[in-house]
């Protein structure tokens, strides 16, 4: 008798290849050839819609997954768009469109923003993830499924090649 394949459940480390495209079919991101991406399933390491689609699959599975914005990087919220004075950034800060900056909220929480555009006086920043509001399409190939170590589960992320090295 052969062992049953390990299925993807919370607490497994899944290694997969992916190609992410937008509704025009343009490639937004993809795993590098020969370097599939590992993540800890059930820890919110990947967008919820993709995590849900992978649940219960095994090594070797190939999936096409459509993820709506609410199950991806969220809907756009126009209240998260701000213009702030240029001098509130360090003079040498690189503020190109798409640059991620971290602001500290009044409660001390760190909030990510992305630069939309900047001139000498004002920096327009957007707290929406650049892919907020965008329907996502993933082509997935599951390369490996293994049980996470206790340490990985405690940390909430993968250790080793392709993961955290600390
Ligand atoms: Zn760790």
What would you note in describing this structure?
This protein has 166 residues and is mainly β. It is 8% helix and 36% strand. It has two helices and nine strands; from the N terminus they run βββαββββββα. It has helices at 48-54, 150-155; strands at residues 12-21, 27-30, 37-40, 62-67, 81-85, 100-104, 110-118, 122-126, 136-147. Strands 1, 2, 3, 4 and 9 form a five-stranded antiparallel sheet that branches. The longest helix is centred in the N-terminal third of the chain and has 7 residues, at 48-54. The chain binds zinc ion (ZN). Zinc ion binds next to loops.
Rg over CA atoms: 19 Å
Low-confidence stretches: none
Intertermini distance: 40 Å
User: Helicity, in percent?
Assistant: under 10%
* Number of helical stretches of at least 4 residues: 2
* Strand residue percentage: 35-45%
**Helix vs. strand class:** mainly beta
Largest sheet: 5 strands, antiparallel
Mean of all residue-level pLDDT scores: 93
| Number of E strands | 9
* Helix and strand sequence: EEEHEEEEEEH
Unique bound compounds: zinc ion
Query: Tell me, what's the shape?
Result: elongated
Question: In brief, what are we looking at here?
Answer:
The protein has 166 residues and is mainly beta. Helix content is 8%, strand content 36%. Strands 1, 2, 3, 4 and 9 form a 5-stranded antiparallel β-sheet that branches. It has a 4-stranded antiparallel β-sheet with strand order 5-8-7-6, with no helix packed on it.
């Amino acid at each position: 008798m052969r062992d049953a394949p390990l299925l993807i459940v919370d607490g497994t480390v899944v290694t997969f290849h992916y190609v992410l495209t937008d509704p025009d079919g343009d490639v937004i991101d993809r795993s590098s050839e020969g370097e599939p991406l590992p993540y800890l399933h059930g820890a919110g390491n990947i967008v919820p819609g993709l995590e849900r689609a992978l649940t219960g699959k095994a090594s070797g599975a190939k999936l096409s997954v459509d993820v709506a914005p609410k199950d991806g990087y969220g809907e756009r919220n126009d209240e998260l768009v701000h213009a702030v004075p240029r001098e509130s950034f360090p003079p040498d800060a690189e503020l190109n469109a798409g640059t991620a900056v971290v602001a500290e909220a009044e409660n001390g929480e760190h909030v990510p923003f992305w630069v939309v555009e900047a001139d000498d006086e004002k920096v327009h920043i957007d707290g929406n993830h650049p892919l907020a509001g965008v329907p996502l399409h993933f082509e997935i190939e599951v390369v490996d499924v293994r049980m996470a170590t206790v340490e990985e589960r405690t940390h909430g992320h993968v250790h080793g090649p392709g993961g955290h090295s600390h």
